[in-house]
Amino acid sequence: MAIVQVTIVPLGTESPSVGAYVASIVHVLQEAKESIRYQLTPMSTIIEGELDDLLAVVRRMHEVPFSHGAMRVSTSITIDDRRDKKGTMEQKMRSVEEKLR
User: So which residues are the signal peptide here (predicted)?
Assistant: First the structure.
């Protein structure tokens, strides 16, 4: 299982606000047929699942701003793909919280 952080920024839009773009991108996550889980944050979206599934979903997410009139889109992806044990978003957070005690 992999965890992907993705930030999608439409460029050259009429307004500095991107909330409508983000909402449209979240629809891709909500409607995904792949077995994924996601967490929206103020600056990015975290998705967990099988890497091939995540990359397919990210590809569809990247296309959304274009379909809403953006002429350029910058997408940043960070992949955490650990093979020695199953990692989840919750497990990673618990690990840090335990070390804070």
Answer: none
